[in-house]
């Protein structure tokens, strides 16, 4: 398996340059085709209009969303013309309530999606459903970029968050093209179960599986010395100098919509390196 089609997603001109720079760097390193999806988001949310909102107001918000998508696409094409990549740019308008499904329809035909961090003071509320759409409905692995991170390249030291879950194993399988070329991969196990088939060798079976794929593996077994597992993981990532985290994306269904779970959200809010996730 390899990543031959990368989808980058942007919904805000303020984050376009950083997202595009990171996506170009990764596509170049992997010799992949890069598709950029520029979404102008209509945030009026049809079905929740207040009494008195008229057609002129609705038309204005739609026009603004079209303008935003067009400006992002124009700026992106100008930058991509300077590269040697194979690329394509799609501009579209989408209502806030439909962002997740719209992103999923594009992500399902990509090998990897790259999106900005969805949380922060300057982040639009559409970024979380964009991440969810790619992960849950699109069934596509996602790299979530940290705020102000260094140029995204092939990672040389990767930390895997391993808790024996199906989500974590799916993420690891999806990340094999990156894991197999890394100099070091650390399987991080936090408070392994005291009872069970792997209690005497936590992470051992996964280590053997990865080693047979040519991955250079070490195992770090840690105690939960902080209130949240994500805090322990984040601190360890800093301590070992990892340049990427691989973890499962956890969520639950609410009114048939995917909602990122607490562990996933905490990592995305605080992690200072790119986070590779799959579900």
Describe this structure in words.
The protein has helices at 13-30, 55-80, 99-107, 127-137, 166-174, 176-179, 204-211, 229-240, 262-270; strands at 5-10, 33-42, 87-95, 112-116, 142-145, 157-161, 184-190, 217-222, 244-248, 251-254, 257-260, 275-278. The protein has 279 residues and is α/β, with parallel strands linked by helices. The chain is 38% helix and 25% strand. The mean pLDDT is 90. The radius of gyration is 20 Å and the shape is globular. The strands form two sheets. It has a ten-stranded mixed beta sheet, with helices on both faces. It has a two-stranded antiparallel ribbon with strand order 10-11. The protein contains nine helices and twelve strands.
Strand content: 15-25%
Spatial order of strands in the largest sheet: 3-2-1-4-5-12-9-6-7-8
Instruction: Give the topology string: H per helix, E per strand.
Output: EHEHEHEHEEHHEHEHEEEHE
Shape: globular
Could you tell me the mean pLDDT?
Answer: 90
**Amino-to-carboxy terminus distance:** 17 Å
The structure class reads alpha/beta
Helix content: 25-40%
User: Major sheet, described briefly?
Assistant: 10 strands, mixed
Task: List the total number of helices.
Answer: 9
Q: Number of DSSP strands?
A: 12
Rg, rounded, reads 20 Å
Low-confidence stretches: none
What labels describe this entry?
38% helix; 279 residues; alpha/beta; two-stranded antiparallel ribbon
């Amino acid at each position: 398996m390899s990543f031959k089609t990368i989808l980058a997603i942007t919904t805000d001109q303020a984050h376009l340059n950083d997202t595009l720079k990171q996506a170009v760097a990764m596509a170049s390193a992997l010799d992949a085709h890069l598709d950029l999806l520029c979404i102008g988001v209509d945030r009026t949310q049809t079905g929740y209009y207040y009494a008195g909102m008229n057609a002129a107001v609705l038309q204005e918000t739609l026009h603004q969303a079209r303008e935003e998508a067009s400006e992002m696409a124009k700026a992106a094409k100008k930058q991509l013309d300077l590269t040697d990549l194979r690329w394509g740019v799609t501009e579209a308008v989408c209502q806030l309530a439909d962002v997740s499904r719209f992103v999923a329809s594009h992500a399902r035909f990509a090998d990897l999606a790259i999106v900005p961090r969805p949380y922060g003071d300057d982040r639009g509320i559409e970024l979380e459903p964009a991440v969810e759409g790619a992960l849950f409905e699109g069934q596509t692995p996602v790299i979530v970029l940290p705020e102000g991170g260094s140029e995204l390249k092939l990672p040389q030291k990767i930390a895997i968050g391993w808790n024996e879950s199906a989500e974590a194993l799916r993420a690891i399988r999806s990340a094999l093209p990156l894991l197999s070329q890394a100099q070091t991969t650390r399987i991080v196990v936090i408070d392994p179960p005291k009872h069970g088939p792997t209690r005497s060798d936590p992470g051992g079976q996964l280590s053997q599986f990865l080693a047979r794929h040519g991955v250079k593996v070490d195992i770090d077994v840690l105690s939960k010395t902080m209130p949240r597992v994500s805090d322990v993981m984040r601190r360890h990532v800093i301590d070992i100098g990892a340049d990427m985290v691989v973890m499962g994306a956890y969520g639950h269904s609410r009114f048939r919509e995917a909602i990122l779970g607490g562990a996933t959200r905490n990592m995305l809010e605080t992690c200072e390196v790119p986070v590779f996730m799959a579900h």
